[in-house]
Every structure is written in C-alpha cells, then in structure tokens.
Queue: 4 jobs
Job 1
Amino acid sequence: MEYKYQNSVDDFRVKYTLVIPDDAEAKNPLTEKEQKFLDDLNDAYDEIENLTNQADGYDYALAVSSGIIAGLIDSFWVGEWDFRKAKGKASEEIAKKIVAYAKKHSGYAKWCDGVDKTGKWIKRKPDSHISAVEFLEELYVLPGDTGWNFAGSGVSPTSHRLDDFCHHPTLVGMISCIIVQFTGTAKYHPSSGEIITLPVTVNKYGNFVSDKAFGKVFAGIINWFFNVAKTLKNRKGHLISDMAGSISSVKVGNDGAGIPGTVMSTLKELSALPCFQDTAFAENLRKAFQNGIGSGKSQLDLGVFNNLFDGASSKFDMRTELAIKKELKRQAIPVVINEIVVRAFFFIRRFIEQMRVKRSLMEIEWKRLLPVNNRTIVRMMTVASGTFCAVDIGDAAIRAGIESCGNVAAFGGKFILRVNFVGIGRFTIAVGADLYMAARKGRMELAIASGEVANTALLEKKIIQEVAEINDNTDTKIEKMKAATADVSNLKF
C-alpha cells in the first residue's frame, strides 16, 4: 500500500511516498475512517499534480513556434474578412436547398407545368428557386401570415417574421405553431413591448382538424414541418420557402426579409420575457433584422464593426447568419491547426519519454500522455493562442496602417477586417481555463494543509507499526541465531 505525503519547510515543498508491505498492512489495519481519510488525500494529491503546470522550455518553445506559424497562415492564406463573398455563397446555398426540398414533393413537377391562380397555363422552371419559393409558400401557409396586414397593428410585412415566433426555426417556434391551433389567434411581439393578439385565417393544412388535443398538436407541427413522417430530417415547409424572403421580393430580385436565424430568434424570444424585457434592445433587434447593420437611416449602428457587413445586404436574417458562420469557419482553420500541432507535440514527446523509461507499451501510463484536462497542456495552449493573437493583431495593424495611409478613421475599419475573432475567442477560453485551474489548485492545497496534522499522525502510526513489525522479526531472528550458536558449541568432533 502506498500513501502520498508532502510538506513545506521554508517554502521548499517535499513530496514523498510511504510504502507499506501488504503483510504489515494486514496485521496493523487502519480504521475505516482513517483509511477513507488517507484515500481522499491520495486522490487530492493526484489532482493537485494534474493541476500543476509542468511545462518546460521545450514545451514553451513549441507553443510559441506553433502560434507564429498559425499566425502566418492566417495572414497569407485566410486573409481579410469578406462578407460580400460569404453572403453570395450563403444565398446560393439557401436557394439550392429550397429547390431541393420543393422537388421532394410529389406535386412539384406537375405544379411547374400547370396553371396559375387565374387559370392560365404557365410553364415554370423547376430548377429555379423562384418557382420553389412560390410553390412552398402557396402549399404551406403559416396561420400568422395573414395577420400582419392589420392597419395600426404595429407589425409590418418586413418585420412579421421576427415578431411572430411561428416563423422562428427554434423549438419555441414549433411550440408557437401548436399554440395557434388551440387559441385561433396569432401573437406578435413587436419592439414596442406590447403583445398584439390578432385572429388568423388558416388554410386547409392549419384547420383545427380534431376536437382532441392530439389533432391540434398534429396540425401545428405539420404547418411547421415539411413532412411530418420525416420530422427528424428537419424538412420545414414554410420556413424553407421563407429563407429567401417572400415570393413578391424574390420575383423582382430584391433581398426581402427572410426568416430570422437561430441567433436572432433566440435573442428576440429572450427580449420578450418579462425578466429580460428591454424596449431599446428589442428595437435594435428590429433595426438589424428589418434594415440591416450600418450607419444608414433606421439601421443598427455598430461603429467600426459596420465594416464587417459592407458589400452586401446586411439584414440580419438567416442568410446573414449563415454568411457570418462561413467566415468564422474560414478563420477557424489556423486556430485548429495551432490546436492540433500543440496537442500532438505534447502527446508524442511524453510518449517517447515514457518509452525510454518503461521500455514496454503495457507499462505506459496512458492517462499522463493524453493532451487534455491537465494544467500543462492548458498553459501550452494559452501561450500558443496568445502568440497567434499577437501575430494576427500585429499583422492587422501593419496592413491597416499601410492601406489607410495615416487616415485614423479609415485605420479602424481596415484593422477590424483583419482581426481573427475565432483566435481571440480561443485565447480567452485558454486564459480562463488556466486561471480556473490555478484557483482550484490553491483551494485544494489549502484544504490539504488543514488536514496535514492528522495526516502526519496517521503516517506516524503506520511507521511505528512497521518499525514494531521489523523489531519483532529481528528479535525472533536473534533468538534463532542464539539457539543455533548454542547447538554448534555443543557439537563434539
């Protein structure tokens, strides 16, 4: 049995392990309470070791080198934030998705080669997202779509998808669709903070199909999902068509209001709660969704961050959220490379060190090789990500200074386009984890220090027991030697 112990003398920490033979442990057992106390201390010492930074010069050198390489990759390969290009890809991706969903409906092909609402024969292009939007919008009408045109309601055609939770691609959105079936009214939450309740007109897919609760729940879900039989695939009928905006805006090529993404939807839903209700916050959400981000009239002005949304429509709907995600994914590439290099070095170096000592894979302590959940790798990632941010920000400042030609106002806009936000976020997380481990280690050392007296007493008891055992064995051996000596002296030759 092994018992770990450490003590401090003149700020010099001594750590040692007392090894008790199993036979002595059996003859002089501790009480259950004493045994639990020592076991808990052993676990605490193991965790303190895990929370102790053991990185050396080689570890720090690798972390810094990796951060510099990742910073250079970000500078020369990732480059500048490009919202216009990302927004174009996002809109194209959504258009293809709408067409793909429409084609899965058995009646889409016939509808494309049929008659319009006036009875006139018309030939539509099945691969056009305009045709797909029109088909889905006619087929899957949300009950609240006919309520926003009430005069004086405070809800407009461009904001109703934000104010009506039924249009939100969230769990709250689906629940709202179900509630409409029970109440027969649509509820809007405009930026004024006043909840507006209006009667709705539902189509054949939204009628109260049953007097039973299950039937109403079914009707609400089928309105929100494209195909109830395959809800796990998230085939949203009306929400899919609304991604590109209403058919009236799509036909003329305008960037009409689409549906809010998950971020905007969640923020809007929170703003409607009594504990979070803030009229100014809700109004800013409306401005961002309806008019976009910028310094223009009725837009949400974010100052220097407005430059991130230049070059394309900045209305903060699902398309804009998707464009931002695409740019963040691009920025994440050097951050991920930095992460992989540092963690791989940690594992390989410690694997080689253990193989030199253990000489066998069966004896390797694999837990100590894993580059996770220990202070050493956390410190290395803090250094690596901090170096990456230093290189990235330095590069952004130099390039912005050259491009702005001394214009202070232009410098901020150019600078923000070069900053890697994913890298800053990773560095913040690394610093937070490092500080948390340091605080936890301090608390555990304090807790152990308060029990060191009792620990010492238990260890002394073990030592005394072991010494007594050794003395007993020694006395027995001496007696045997005396008897043997007496026998030898009595021998006659």
Job 2
Amino acid sequence: MVEYIEKARKILDHFSPEKGDFLDVRFFIGETTNIAIRNGVADQTSSQANIGAALRALIGGAWGFSTTTSFEEGDLLGAMKTAVGTAKAMAKSIGEPGVVTEEYVYEGNAPLKVTSDPREIVMEEKIRVAVELDEHIRGVSDRIKVSTASLSDTVKREVIVNSLGSEVDVSNCYISVRGNATAREGSLIQNAGESVGSTWGWETVEEVDTAEMGALVGKRAVALLGAERPPSGRLDIVMDPSLVGLFIHEAFGHAMEADAIQGNMSVLKDKIGMEVGVPEITVIDDPTVEGLRGYYPYDSEGTRTRRRVMVEGGVQREFYHSLETAARMGVEPNGAARAMDYNWKPIVRMGNTYIDGGDMSLEELCQEVGDGVYLKKSGGGYVNPSIGQFFFSTQEGQVIKDGELGPLTQNVAMSGMTLEVLANVMGVGKESKMRSGSCGKGSQTAPVGMGGPNMAVKGVVVGGR
C-alpha cells in the first residue's frame, strides 16, 4: 500500500488545487479468467491481467479524466496534467458546475479475504470444472440441444488517493459458475439455468457439485417441455425470491441512483420522505456483507460503505450516492460510486439490494392470492426508470388454484409500473434469499447481489410463451 500511496501523493503535490477543486488517483490491478464450454466444445478460455491508473480532476466546476497503463511517476504526472488541462478547458462551457464536499475523508486497508486464491489454481483445473458441468447438463436427455457451462474468477485491487486526504487500499475476489440448458421438442423450446457466485475464493467452486447442478439444470429444461402453457391476463401473483430480486434491483434500484434522480430520469425524484409502497416494504442495500457478490468495503472513490436502508416501512429514505451527487443534494456520501476498471470513471451503482423479509409463509401467500400464478426463476427484462415501467420474464411458473400450488407452467412474463406493484403488495414472505448477478450501466458492468422473499402482488399483467 505504501508504495502506491507515496506515488499518488507525489503526483498530487505537483498541483495546488483551489477551494472547491478536487484531484484523485486510482490504481487498478486486476486478473481475470473466463471459461465457457458449449456442447462439449471450448467456446472461450482466457486469462488476462488488467493494470492501469485512472486520474480525475475537478477544476473550476468541470471534470477532466485521464488514464495510463504505466505506474512510472513521469507517466502518472503526464496523465494528471491531461486531466487538469481538460477540466480547465471545459470550465468555460459547463452547465451546472461539479462539486465535491471537502468534509468527507476516508482511510482504510481492506485486504483480500479468501481461503483459496483462484490465481493459484491451474487453468486445467478450471477447465475441468466447466467441462464436467456441461457434460452433466447434456447427459440428462437427448432433448437438450444446447448446453453451456461457464466459470469466471476475478481478483482486483484498487488504491485510491485524493487531494482531500483520503487513502484507501481495497482488494476483492469475484467467482461465478453458471450452467444453462436449452431443450427442444418439435418447435417448442424451453430454457433453464442456475448460477453460483460469491466474493469468496476458489472454495466457492469446490463447494459446487457439478453432477447435481448439471442434472438440476437439464431436468428443469426437459420438464418445461411438458409443462402447461402459462395463464395470461391481469392476475394476482406470487413472485419468488429471484424475481423479487430482479424487480427490486432493475425496476426500483436503478431509479434510486442519484445520478438518475438529478438527471430527471427517475420516477422517484422528490420522493424522499414519501410513501413509495405499502408499509410491509423495506428495501436494504448492504455492500458490507462478506461473501455476497455485491460486497465491497470501499467504493472506487475511496468512500467507506455501509448498510443502506433505502426504503423503510414503505417510505423512501435515501438514494445511492457518489461524492458529487451527495454534495449536490447536501447529504453524506454512502459509497455507491463504482468503476469497472481503470478505463472508466466511477458511476453510481448498487451493491447487495433486497427487500427485507416479512411474516408470511409461501402457503399463506398462495392462500392470499387464491387463484393466480407463482412466477419462478427470473430471466431477463426491460426497464424504463424514468417512468417506472418494466417487463420481466421468468423461466417457469406454477398455477395457484384455490390457494394451493398446482401444475408447472412454461416461461411466464410480467409487466407493469414499478410503484403500482409496490402499492399493490398483498403480503411479504418470511425469509430473504440472495442471488448473484452482473449489472450493466453506462457500458460498465459491476458484480451485484439481489434478492428478497416470496411476495404476493395483486393485479399484475402476466403472459407467456
């Protein structure tokens, strides 16, 4: 840590920022392996290092940004001069000036916390895991026409130093194993997938039973070929934890990002202190939970993270903030500025977002619904956070008849308006469950966690196949 801190301080000492100006240096050291097997053939096998420095300057209310792949003092100084020069040039033509509050300074060292470092595992072993998973998926049935298995691991380190005095050194590990199956019978095609992800080390992979996971994925895809067509119309539903997680992350979480709020691109603008859902809804984002895929103790600006209560008892309490958005809104930054690597500026992102558990069992939720559908195993979707509109698909469902779970259905989709869903919640399940994922925004991806309990909602538009 000391070496990088000293280098950054030498660079910053060359400049004399005025009050309101801001400079930072962020060193990034990353190593990534990606393996993908498709129908028994290697689709991708890569291992690469990603090393560089990102330098920012806020001068006269305008931002400048520059990068370099060299950690030599002369190259770092040249990159910072470029950032400063860009900011000065832009200061003459900016609209609303940028701002960073001077009162928040952070110091910390968060070393890598893994039992088994994936960088020490040979490529042959990583390939073996993916190949075995793919074989077990395809081995379920000849009706599985496409099988894929992927494994990825990333270890990254960020050292952030700024002109306010912050000095942070943080390392993290991201592991993911995923299996997918596409089953076909005639013109009917059904898909199923499962994934495991964490911020622990190779021990995450060692805990995966490839035979069990492969059989689960393959059998689910085949079973869906014989499942009922899903119901359609405006129905009462129960969302499973994976769909609740997708909904609260995509439809609601992105609308809570302060850059969207300040850009008039969120349905939640001016909602602090106001009801956005029924009293049973509490939304938490906690990037401090070790092991979950959205864990990070400091963000890419060096801000210490914390448990964030976004919605409490149905009332909006806070938004996700970077140093700049927090300063604009006159609040304390909450560690939500994340950058994919040194090539990108930190932008406002989520961590581990979930709806907190309530007091109802799945059986009680189904009884509350009466007749409807249980939507399970989330897929993809579309969201427009500016108006709160969404569309999400699921891999499967179950008919709910007279308050009881019934036959399996094929893929189901739901659509509607975000705040209407939260206002029409009929009941919240007892236990929140988390899933791992990757979130895209502004051409950057970030590892995240998302989840919640089972949740019953009335009057949602659903349909399928």
Job 3
Amino acid sequence: MFDFLIGILFFLSSFSFSEFIEIENCDDDDSFSIVCGFQNPEDLYLSPSKNKIIISEFGSLAPITKYGEISFYDLVSESKKSPNFLYEENTWGDPKCDRKSQKLSPHGMDLIQRYDGKFMLAVVNHLPNESVEFYELIESDTIELIWRGCIDAPKNKYFNDVALKTDGSFYITHMYDFNASQWSIAYASITKNPTGEIYFWNLDDGFTAVPNTTGSFPNGIDLDKSEENLYINYWFSGKTVKFNLKSLSTEYEHVGGGKDNLLVTDSGLWVAAHDYSGLESLQCDYSIIQCPLPFTIYHLALEDLDVLGTYSFSNGQMGAATVALPNKNKIWLGSFHGDRIASFKLK
C-alpha cells in the first residue's frame, strides 16, 4: 500500500511542481567551481590546518545497505584523498559498543579539540547498525583517523547530526523513529508534525532527551564556544533555533526553506536550506546523479539569528546543498544526493 501511495505522490509532484533541468556534466558555471568524484558528500568540516575538507560520503539508512566512506579534499593539491585508518581500543565511547566492521554509512559530523588537546571527530553512522563513531584526527600531509570508540543508538532511533562538547559528551538530533512508516514521514513533511527531538549523551547517564526540543525532523546541530547554546535546524518546519541550555528554552528563531546542516563559525552561523518541499524531493530518485533542486545559504548572527546575508541558487551545476562551509573568501557546499562538492566566492 505504501509503494502505491508514494507512487501517487510522485505522479502528482511531477505535475504540481516545476520541472528541473538534470545536471549531466561536471563543468563549472557562472556561480560554482565544481569538484566531482564523490558519493553524496552530506557533511563537510575544515581540518585543523584549514588546508583540507573532511567529507562524510553518505550511503543509506537501514534496511537498505549502501555503504559510504569518510574522505577528504586537499585544498592545496586540489585532489580527493582517503584518510589512513587505525583501530584501537574503545576509550572514548560506551565500553559495551564493539565495532565489528570497518564499513559504515556516515551522516552528520563534528570536529573539536578536546580538553586534553586531541582532535576528536564524531560521526553519525547508519550501517551496519545505528551508532556514533569516535575518531582521533591527526593531521600531517595526510589525515590519520584512529578509531577510539563508539556508542550504539537507543533502540528504534534514527540520528542525523552531532555536536560535541570538549569533554567528549555530545548532543545529537533524532530525526524520526526507525519504525515510523514512510507514509507518516511524508505526511509530516506536509503538516510539519513533530517527528523527533534532541538527545544528550554522556558516559554516566547514556542518552537522555533534552526537554523542549521536539520538532518536525530535527536535522543540523551545533554548539557555541561557551557550550551554553545549541543551534538546531528542523528540516520540515524550516526553523533554525537558538536554544539556551541553562533555561532549556528557545531564545531566537529563524524560518526559511527546509533547514539542513548548520555550522557555528567566528563569522556567524552558516545554514543550508532547501527551497523545495518533501514531495518535490521525490523527483531526485536514484536515476539522478546530482539532485538539481534549488537552495539558499543563510548567514545568520550568532547572538539573535538576524540575517547577515542570503545566497540563493537554482538551475546551476550544484543543487540540494546540505552544508555551507566558509573558508577564506569561499563557501564550500555538499549535497545529500550527488557526485560533487562545489564552492562559490563571497562578494
């Protein structure tokens, strides 16, 4: 029955919404510099030297078993490379979590310098089981990732993005339950009904839900440097919120587009938003190499989410951007469905 309903929705969406131009080559255009050779580069982070971009190449959610990888793009040599992986004892995660396979399907990431000076990369992972993976990142001419532990997700929870604290604990977005029907998720994309919330994890207490964070498809998340405020994106409702962790309340809110990932930087908050509905996203099926749907990058003030700048794109060589990563005079972009990363210059 579900396949029949989705088929109807897809059929209706092809008539109800404007047709898009499929992206078929890897050429630069007037807006973007393009780098191809990736699989769904969903999340991006600058390395400590700021000479490399760490990339989460998404595979799939269970029960589909399409694996991805963690890679990096060297900004000096302008080439894609693979990190060197080492696997050590689980000293940063839950001792009960045991990684039996090196395969994974990475999603959201966070990279911080811990209280002990080590660089910690946390990766939301969907395969072969739902987990959060911890790596120590060591940078030289290349990137070395030393596996330092993992945490199994609570039963029935799908995670999306993670925000680390310097002590190794973290906040994480639960986008929806594993047993939620695809029909109910499609319906929530229209009605903006709540589907998930934010969880906090530490070694002593495990996962606990953060009060007053329930919303319609929680997505990107990040902490400010004081670790007193969370910035949270809700994809279906199009909200970015500044959430005070002391009062456990939302202080400021920005609405616009389907909010995906966000990044806290010295220059402000950078937010990627999709300018299309959940139904329109059905047009980007597996026959499409690079989803071309329109998007906007918002530059928001950390204090009150005032808009500092907007950058909107459509019908270009990059579509459906999920993340906006500033570096020097450029913004780097990833996508949940595509073969490329891209950059555009700030004026």
Job 4
Amino acid sequence: MELTNINIIKDLFARHGFSFSKTLGQNFLINPSVCPKIAELGGCKEGVCAIEIGTGVGVLTKELAKRCDKVIAVELDERLKPILAETLAEFDNVEIIFADVMKIDLSEIVGKFGGKDVVVCANLPYYITSPVIMKILESRLSVKSLTVMVQREAGDRICAAPATRESGAVSYAVRYYSEPRLLFKVNRGSFMPSPNVDSEVIKLEITNEHKLPENVEKMLFRIIRSGFSQRRKQLLNPLSAELKLSKEELCGAFLNVGIKPTARAEELTLEDYIELAKKLVE
C-alpha cells in the first residue's frame, strides 16, 4: 500500500471514517522521498531498534520497520488503531502504544529492546516540538540519536550555535545534552493537509558530554531561561529579579568566572553559563 498516494489515503480515511484533527496538529506526509531519508539518516539499520513518536498513517513507521530489528511507536490518537492495523499488517516487528508521550516512562520502552542500540525518529506536531525533545533529552535515555521533523523556524533555533544572534534558550538546552545539526529541508507541499510553514529534519546526536550535579543543572537552566526571557536586556537585570540577589552580588560572580557585567543572554557560551551556575550554587 503506497501511503504517500493521496487517493489511497483518502480511500483509507473514508473507509475508516477518519478526519484530521486540528487540535492534534495532524499533517501527514505525502512526499515519498522524505521518510526513507529520515530512516537512513536517522541511523536505522540491522541491529538497531527505533522509537517513533506520532505514527500518522504509518508512512515513517514502515520505513523504520524495513530497516530496524524492532520499532515501538507512541501515538496519541486512538482513532488511528484500525488504520494502522491495516497499513502495518505486513510487519511483525512493530508495536504501537496508544498514549500521550508526555505522560509515559520512555525508559520502559528502551528496556524492551534488550540492550540493542536505540534511535528515536519522529514527525512531531509543531505545537509540542520543544516539550517532546526536552523530555527525551532530560530523561537521559540510552539512545544514540533523535531525528525529528520540525517547523523550519524551530529547527533553526534548536540548531543555532550558542553565543549567536539566532540562539535561544532551547539552543543551549539542546547543546547541553547533544550535538544538533540540520539534515534537510521539507517544503509545506509535502504534507496533507498542507501547513502554513515549511519544515526541516534535524538530528541530535546524544553526547552525554555534560553531567553536572542536580542542583547545578537546575541553576543552569534557571538562569538560561531567565536570561532569554528578556534577551534585549543585560543579563544582570533578569537574573537579579529571578534569584533575588543584588546586582552587586551578581556582578562579583560574573567577574569571577570571566563574564562581562554588561553581557546579554545571547553573548554567553554554554560553558560560560555552566561556570556561572557553579559559582551561583556556591
């Protein structure tokens, strides 16, 4: 069954009485070249298992199942049950869990793969992109990488290098756990229904380079979020209000770790923030 053929999809939906949900941000891929590229570039191959988040009608799921030893997909919309039973009938290495990915323990899913290498692949609804990515990263799952389709603007921000104008709080958070890079762009016409924006596929290689004590890690993300909440202001201002410390006290901490007191949030490197977080916890 060619799941990127519009007529086949429409027939499938008609037979099962399915209609798109705007609330769930459903835009299903109809460009036949995209999902094979996601699977290949996402590291799917023999000896590897995959977690998929959001199945749609199973277009990406099929490509993962062709290459991986086992695929476990998490899908929120239970209306897709009969559709997926039909579209994935030929694969005995696919398990679908109908649940909210934000409410389940993903480490239990990783545990089902028996110690094999695991990758995560997803075509995420735009409204939940950052929460899902951060949940996976913060859970410190035993996975090699996370390859996701996201709104182009969000992907550019996620992959932006820290200490650049393009960076935001999420740029630093993602870099703390992984090495992100853009794989390829996907235009809006590749979906049904067509969204109002273009997309891109990004890959986050999990590095585990940084592992700070829990109190320092909490302080790190607290000061990053606070700084970018008022990114046009000097960093001292929002941090003073957030941490209830005088600017004089903060100025001393800044100078102690080699940060200019006049610096703005986007001017610091991730290492600057880490050293500042350590100092503030002291």
